[in-house]
User: Fold these one by one.
Assistant:
Number 1:
Amino acid sequence: MQCPNCRHPESHVLESRPADLGRSVRRRRECLGCHERFTTYERVEVIPLTVVKRDGRRESFNQGKMFHGLSQACEKTTVTPEQVRLIVEEVESFLQQRNYREITSKELGELVLARLGQLSEVAYIRFASVYGQFASVDDFSAILRLLEKRGEQPLRLRSNLSTPGP
Ligand SMILES: [Zn+2]
């Protein structure tokens, strides 16, 4: 790291500490040339991810929004907020590791559903209905009937047309 004062290429690290809630490391350095002290921040490079919605609109991937949507689907189920947080993290790191720049909302929904399905069928159905993963109303009704047969009571489902609250 070049010294901002004399441009000497080498410095000595005096102190390292986590910053930005652990997402970066702050280092206090001393230049080996002029002994001026300066601070650097090191962070993991995050590739911005764009979500292409069904109507063709694009928006940047929003971790908070995904957490909120998933939390709603998991209300009054056995899925804990901690499990919701883990799903969001897993999906995000899966996409980062594969250097995805763009993903359709349908693909994103499938990645979530693959994980949610292992935790709760009710949450799975609710999330799928919100994200429009069912081809038709008939598919959807068939799955609901299946759940009723198994004795799992689907709670009132959110309409595709409803808008998420603030
Ligand atoms: Zn220097």
Number 2:
Amino acid sequence: MSTYVFKEKQFSSLYHKYIISGSSEIMAMILSYVAEKFLFTPYSIMYLKNEPYCKDIQKGLPLPLSLAVDVGCGTGKSTLPLAPHFKSVLGIDFSDSQINMARQCNAAENVSYTVASAEQMPLEDESVDLVNAGFAVHFFDQDKFLSEAVRVMNKNGCLALHACHPSMQVEYKNLSQDLTQVMHEAMANISKFDCNSFEHLSSQYQSIYEAVPLKDKKWITDITEKVSMSTAGLIGLLQAICCFQIFKDKDPNGANELLKNTEQRLHDLLGEDAESAVFNVYFKHHCVLACKS
Ligand SMILES: C[S@@+](CC[C@H](N)C(=O)[O-])C[C@H]1O[C@@H](n2cnc3c(N)ncnc32)[C@H](O)[C@@H]1O
């Protein structure tokens, strides 16, 4: 199983340094979806009469939210942004090394991390207001995870599953098309060492959306995010993709060749700008949102 890669300490450092994470627009979308589901219900009014714990930044409204769980939390990149909005946040990942890195790099007073599997979460029935999984559900046993998520969700509890499309657009001077082509070719090579995940990402989670066993659900696609990246960042990103590590394990020479070749092609295109160039890189995010009524 490809996900063994995440259990290697060296990979966690690489992952933490280079991988891109959930977009701020997706996070805002998730929070306003949760607010919409909680604020106008008797359940939330009951909470609001007591102690409101958090503020929805956008609306300036108190959110009566107790527990969020970030499943497949990795190094905590999408766990920490949840912290201001919930009384407590729990990050779950089956990799010791990812959890250790999360504890070191993305700590907060109301955030804790634990090693556990997405298919068997150490949580009571109906105890969670938000089950979040960023860049992760495509690695899980989806049927088992989805029924586990529904088990732990409170009434009006929400589910958010998000990631981005594997292809990216690189924008830089008059070289955008050529640079994008180089990155697309590198990704196409890496995707040969795939474990279904590229399929899920390329379809923007369509079959995962269809499999969510809740009536109240929606599927949002094509949310563009712009990230500033250097040549080193692009090469680092390729290495931080799980499939690249599988490639490296199966064919170390081939994997190193791909990296060297990609870097050389970027350098040849950029010439003297190679070291200093900062690109606008566009990623297309998608999100499945659902609510347990
Ligand atoms: C691509 S990373 C995403 C990490 C993080 N959510 C982020 O946005 O950066 C996927 C994570 O899912 C974890 N993972 C994969 N399968 C899992 C499972 N069955 N149970 C728990 N964690 C799992 C991996 O260890 C890895 O840290």
Number 3:
Amino acid sequence: MNVKGRDAAYWLGEDGPFAQAMEAFVPREGQIKMASAVEAALSSRGRLIVEAETGTGKTLAYLVPILSSGVRAIISTGTKTLQDQLFEKDIPLACQMMAPAPDVRLLKGRANYLCRYRLSQTVAEGLLTSREDVATLQSIVEWSQYTISGDLAHAAPIREDSALWPQITSTRENCLGTSCPNYDDCFVVRARREAEKADILVVNHHLLIADLMLKDQGFSELLPPVDAIVFDEAHQLPTVARRFLGWRFSTKQFSLLLDDVRRELMTAAPDMLQAWGNREVVLADVFEHIRNFPVDGRVSWENRPREAWDGLCQLLFDVASKMAQLTEACEARSEGLARCHQRSLSLLADLQRLMVEPAQDWARWLEKHSRSIVVTDAPLNVAEPLQQRLKAQADAAWIFTSATLSVGGDLTPFAHDIGLEGQATTLTVPSPFDFQRQALLYVPRYVPEPNANEALSVIFEHVRVLVERSRGRAFLLLTSHRALSEARLYLADLEGVSVFFQGDAPKMQLLEQFRTNAPSLLVATGAFWEGVDVPGEDLQLVMIDRLPFPSPDDPMTAARTRWCRRRGLDAFEAVSLYDAVLALKQGAGRLVRRVTDRGVLVIFDPRLVSRPYGEYFVRSLPPFKRTRSMSEIEAFFEALHQHETDRN
Ligand code: SF4
């Protein structure tokens, strides 16, 4: 079938191929409207911002016009989960219906691919101490013989915190590029070459922006020029851009450098190993400083503990200087040693950079992790740098879409954030769901304001009752790790309900346990507020402890607030309220995923009804029927359970 010449209304309409071939496909007016807007943007190479609420079917709304017009496109997602879902499910399905057979490729960041060179070094070195790592390494060696993609997501699972990761993957700094003995069968090179030829390339925002920032050494330009770029989950773009348009310094780079120098000396200059000194002693000293570093989590640069920081910097300076001297003496002996020399010099330059205060429109903060300290410099305003970098793809259509982009239906703040205010066509597509009938928004009475001492214990009492009425099938989404810890004390013993807490297992595993162990309650924070899809009867109650305002102590929030004030802008509205509304929309969006779903959204924060800004939140949420009456909630669940019993 020739797919060209047919518009989206044909493909997605009532008598169209999707409706005829798929029993579950429901033609949706909003989906066709969005698809038509995408068609117009593709033909004019315009800029389009679309908020497509849950249930619109936004993925097909951009895939169908792309496939039917035959344009070359990059689709960028916020998460790897959506990236995989697009590549493995959505695009094959659309292609099957439309039969255009384009060349579709998936490209991830280099840290996702096995590096053959580093793998062989790790095996030759034989220094792994943990039994688990040795066993995993063995299975990866076997897997490396037959894998085609080298994508480690398909290898034996490696723990997120395993010491193996940096040993078998490459970074831009340590990759040998064309000088590598494994260059011809390198997985990263292969993935990027295939990406260059793709008709449709699926990437993520991190990779896309990192590519716009750096024309990767050894691989020249990574992403090909295309006719269209779609940013799905576009609400994450400003945050990702702030991170990747900025600069990061991590103490981990020093331990990696020490490791790599030793490996390269073993291969190319064993006579100089003695001069390398005792790595364990040096590293132990660095880790001791990090362990005792008097910071818990994140602090702004102004509040760093200066004495401890200066002591650590001095130590790192000594390490980098010693490595620079050593590698200078033998850099001619191998490309690997030459790279190590360059890395030592660049670490010395990084330490120099840290002695200079950040520019006024940048935020700098310091973050302590279990085995490293990271300093980040991030631009507060990404609009201009983002637009500048996107100029490389200026001839393409740019389409930004997400279920949560607007505040109270207004897309201007998002357009402003990405530098497209007044330059993009905007569209909001309402959900096709009947929210008034499908769901209730319940704000319980007599819950104290969130900062009151007793607030959490009162909330947890409500949770116990609500979960009993709903018979589990519930999420409790919290706004802090402190609340998560307290929830463990109050809620672990719910009678007849399996309770799962974030952190007890990886995200996907936890969701699977939640689904298969009903009646169940999942208690979580951050990572579960978005990108979680539990349709149907498995989830009928979503509870949120408080309005998710960012902490004013968060260095980025504090810096953005100061930045707004300097410009005479309302910082509360532009930073705190905006971020909180988008986060609440994401959290609330977990409840109703299908046209047949029914449930209750509970927001325990009384400010939703007592403060003037509460109206912003309410207007941004789906138009659920509102109530403050527990008996209405009880009646709702009773009717729901009766309906399920009758049906079964
Ligand atoms: S080219 Fe780079 S990524 Fe590829 S095998 Fe060599 S070092 Fe590893």
